[in-house]
Amino acid sequence: MVPLSRRTVLAAATVGAAAVGLSAPAARAAGAPASDQALKKIISRMSLEEKVGQLFVMRVYGHSATAPDQADIDANLKELGVRTAAELIEKYKLGGIIYFAWAHNVRDPHQIADLSNGIQKVGLEQPSRIPLLISTDQEHGIVARVGRPATLFPGAMAFGAGGSRSDARKAGQIAGAELRAIGIRQDYAPDADVNVNPANPVIGVRSFGADPQAVAGLVAAQVKGYQSAHIASTAKHFPGHGDTATDSHTGIPYISHTREQWERLDAPPFKAAIAAGIDSIMTAHIVVPALDPAEDPATLSRPILTGILREQLGYDGVVVTDSLGMEGVRTKYGDDRVPVLALKAGVDQLLNPPDLSVSWNAVLAAVRGGELTEARLDQSILRVLRLKAKLGLLKEPYVSPSGVDRAVGTPAHLAAADRIAERTTTLLVNKKGLLPLSRRTHKNVLVLGANPASPSLSDGPPTTVIGAALTELGFTPTVLATGTAPTQATIAQAVAAAKGKDAVVIGTYNVAAGSAQQSLVNAVAETGVPVVALSMRNPYDVAQLSAADAHVAAYSWIDVELRAAVRVLAGKAEPRGKLPVPVQKADDPAQVLYPIGYGLSY
Q: Is residue 511 in a domain?
């Protein structure tokens, strides 16, 4: 796609202002967003089809709104029945688009900005002339769609370890400014779940921790940071996904919390987000019988979304579903019923259904058949338009190349991320004062471990990043990637490589009892060479690795966290992080090995 010129951007922005009944001078002036009266006039001019479309936020393949690569055209035709984002918007009158790396939407900042501008241009060419709300999942840490050269921050649990609300707010402000510069105005972050279940397969380090009040404070801080950058923050996953043993992508999690437990454990972060002025809240595809005896998933539960969220908690902002393609919401009802039931429950935005044609037509038929009223749709559309107006989309829907250059991945932003990451690294074990490593006594270091990295989020595999960081600090590392399930041959190779080394650093990833990673650490430790375990996701790894001489929790395999952890290993930074979750004993989960707040220092 040819980038839009500044003149084109400004001209189109004026068109967007006219579409909502604002003069061009008024569109440029600072002040309150469009009034409800003005927004209701827009709604009154919309056809039923346009109203239905405004409720959907959809994926689409391609780096360009009008000229994607052939492979992405083929994928769009197969899944969506259209060739391009432009055709998708024209056919379904969409209210929003969600970006994914796997959909090839996010190659680099200028490409993303061009895609965003192309999408807005198509939206403003529709009869309703309403800009789209472009969104993504940019939680940071292990969930980030926009990669380098954008600034990448530690994930939520790392912030929990750092414990600084100021850092959480600063990160949200910087991340929000960078997203806004590339045309993304709604971020599905922060995660407000309280991770009280170490076996949680879907949340884990995406949560700030296991203490509801600590999580609430960090959630509120990050909401304020994001929204100070004039993008919509989204607290998720209501009413709380932190105590699940089932991944809602693949099944229906059941939460056994009583109403009192929910109030005490799950609710505080969402209440804090609402008090902080959160723009949107994402639903969870979980069943909580104490909140809805009918045992409908929360996404489809009127008692939960209307009864609790709207009426009891007083929230009147935008409610968006988690992806409607997830099994947690599809198991009980068909794809034609899910969107209708979600709207009846109190949802405003329907996110990424597996078959848009089925879902879109189901909502249309529900209105024509009387199951849903246009007035009900109008309630949600008004909330969505209020948000678009608040974010400035109705006045200035476009972004500029110069804005991208000024905001994305600047030296100041990258330095801030490095400083914040250093304050999150947690030292859990340090037998005989092994750490910090010294270049005089531990110069030759063997680096082993898993490589779970996403290429767009790093300079290379984690073991390579660790090795490069050690080299920069004057060590002489040898890197041997051993993976998450090393074979006996690989373990033997690692043991042979450890001989003659001064220390071994092993990056671990979700270590289970009796796993090959545990065997690797045990075998290398038996050589007598000092072993440092560096957990690159869950801090719970430490309970399985008693053979290690030292253990450091980094909470992610993302570069910024690994580099900070290496600086801690080398004594270039102090280990300041404290555990935001308890770690139970490996052989007795009822006993706590390391409590919340635990962390060693030098």
A: yes
